[in-house]
Input
Amino acid sequence: MKISSGWSKGLKILTPAGLETRPTRERIRQSAINMLAPWIAEAKVLDLFAGSGAIGIELASRGAAGVVFCEVSRSALDCLRKNAQEARARAGKQGVTLNPWVVEATDAHVLIKDCPPSSFDLIWADPPYELAERFVRDVGSYLASALCPGGVFALESHSDAVEWLPDWGETVSLELKKQRAYGITLISVWQKN
Output
């Protein structure tokens, strides 16, 4: 797996062995990044369930100001830290400043609930598909709080999520803006009102 564009183009991404994490396939990653294109420039990004960090690094490489990566799996954290370190070194050589650029070894539920208001412009979440519904239901209001006005929350889930995805509307101030299915994968993007 490699980063496809920007200052980090060609960077090889280490991924953990085994089935503990499920890296987003390259075609889906590119499609998701393209969906998010209007919100990437200078965005402060939170990459929840970051795995190898490929999504966050790709967003930064395409112009995001910086990324906070959140992951709990030890094997994924080892790869994520190496990938983030290599990407930051590459950015530095090209005169790119990344702020924030942090790896948080914590549970996504905990991190999002502890975020100060308006901390991020773009939040990406790729939870294990079997945990996605519970995660979304548990943290909806916290996601909205953590986003800056006009910021977006993007979720990668199983395509059957269309049956349970919330219509937050005015209760959580997140409005569904885009949604696309790619085989068994569904990418949904909400914007904070």
User: Anything to note?
Assistant: The chain has six helices and seven strands.
